[in-house]
């Protein structure tokens, strides 16, 4: 997936303008979507809806809680059969957990995975987060790319602010960063980051050539109205990552076919699959 290129001015639109859409939204051209799944059955269901990235994590245990290693292996074995004719199949991503847990699991990520993520909670200074990235990166298979993670509610996670992590990630040579929420209490990353901060984050990612993904209790209504919050298209997220908004009930529920279909229709066929 291509990185971003140069910046523009931040918008003035307040977060309150990002309200849920009442009708099926128009297609979102050239944006990718990621769905978090907890097991092989959910992965198979998500594939039916042209998801670009399948993210393996256990939603009942925290922001980036990992699933069992056996589930990674099951999905990795099946993934090759999910490529539709003439297209590449969805890329695989593994949530490794936070800090020490992430380091302990890094060498067990299957090489078929494209990405892995380690939560930065407890990393309250640059040396700590660089140490985490170094320890995880050294243990992961060479073909798996480590994605930097920043939390909109960084105080709850006792880690550096999102903007500081983005700056460090760019300096350390990262190509991608995820903006998420640490606490899963219904507050979204869009609500936690005011309009100017979110736009500035996108501008900084664009300027530093970092592909960025927006997660954190976001809804399809917010996603389809993201242009009101971040008018310059080049500052907007390259990917939207979702769990709760495609589930029956909350994020710990099962995937809803109807909700998945609405997201798929919003992104449209033009989104397609893209290789890094």
Which features does this protein show?
disordered N terminus, 276 residues, 8-stranded parallel beta barrel, alpha/beta, 16% strand, 11 helices, TIM Barrel, disordered C terminus
What does it look like?
The protein is α/β, with parallel strands linked by helices and 276 residues long. The protein has a single domain (15-267), classed as Copper homeostasis (CutC) domain (TIM Barrel, Alpha-Beta Barrel). It contains 11 helices and 8 strands. Strands 1-2-3-4-5-6-7-8 form an 8-stranded parallel β-barrel, surrounded by 6 helices. Helix 3 (99-105) packs parallel to helix 4 (126-139). The chain is globular. The protein starts with 31 loop residues before the first strand and ends in a 9-residue tail after the last helix. The model is unreliable at 1-29 and 269-276 (pLDDT under 50).
Shape: globular
- Helix content range: 25-40%
CATH architecture field:
Alpha-Beta Barrel
Our measurement of the CA-to-CA distance between the termini, rounded to an integer number of angstroms, reads 4 Å
Structural class of the secondary elements?
alpha/beta
pLDDT below 50 for ≥5 consecutive residues: which ranges? 1-29, 269-276
Oligomer: single chain
Number of helices: 11
**Largest sheet strand order:** 1-2-3-4-5-6-7-8
Element order, helices and strands?
EHEHEHEHEHHEHHEHHEH
Q: How many domains make up the coordinates?
A: 1
Mean pLDDT: 86
- CATH fold-level assignment: TIM Barrel
Main pleated-sheet profile: 8 strands, parallel, barrel
CATH superfamily: Copper homeostasis (CutC) domain
Specify Rg, calculated over alpha carbons.
17 Å
**Beta-strand percentage?**
15-25%
